[in-house]
Design brief:
elongated
């Protein structure tokens, strides 16, 4: 059977391995997973907005410094 799976082109075996115990997620675990996903999205949104808040003024400062240096030369 293993030889069949290894030599079958383009096919991925989707059956659960016989020694792996398959568990069913309870309603509480599903809610926890959903809440953790929302938390991660919230943190990503905060991080991206902080990046924008910091990077735009830094870019403007760099342009200003470059203009000062250019004008002095």
């Amino acid at each position: 059977m293993l030889k069949f799976h290894l030599h079958t082109v383009g096919k991925i075996p989707t059956a659960v391995h016989p020694f792996v115990k398959q568990t069913v997620l309870t309603q509480e675990k599903r809610k926890l997973l959903i809440n953790s996903g929302e938390l991660i999205r919230g943190v990503q949104n905060i991080a991206s907005s902080m990046y924008r808040m910091i990077s735009i003024p830094l870019a403007r400062l760099a342009v200003g410094i470059a203009r000062l240096i250019r004008d002095q030369l």
